[in-house]
Structure prediction request, 167 residues.
Amino acid sequence: PRVFWSPAAFDPEIHLKFKTEKLYPVSFVGSTYRPFHPDRIELLEMLRKNNVDVRIDSKALQDMSLVFSRSKIVLNRSIADDLNMRVFEALGTGSLLLTNRLRPDSGLEQLFKDREHLVLYDHSELLDLVRFYLANDVERERIASKGYAEAQRNHTYHHRVRAILET
Prediction:
């Protein structure tokens, strides 16, 4: 009776929204080791071949948050179609998150709404979505702002600990 799902979360003192210019059209922070992440490599190469300026980096903690805060769009590609920590960390920085569509049992769409808090993509539509949101600042920032507010309101580690203690 005391078993429940506790998804990942973020720490607002580490994964924070820096007040900075949006210097990067798109950023991706994470592993790009081809043998482990061929899908990620394929997506990033496809974007670059189509003249999308993508910053690819390997940062952690506040350094990662600064890259995300400087980005118009943060791209996520989960490893095993799982609801990964990057979703929460990116939303906590206040930039628009584009993340791959996951299986219904992942829980992603129980916590966040597509085109309200973040944008979900399938491989075939990623380029069109990136182009759309780079060209539509108001819509991009509207979704980013709602995603940030939802993450702050319900998805910090403080929220997860409180749920554990209440259960």
Summary: The two ends are 9 Å apart (CA to CA). The first helix runs from residue 38 to 49. The mean pLDDT is 95.
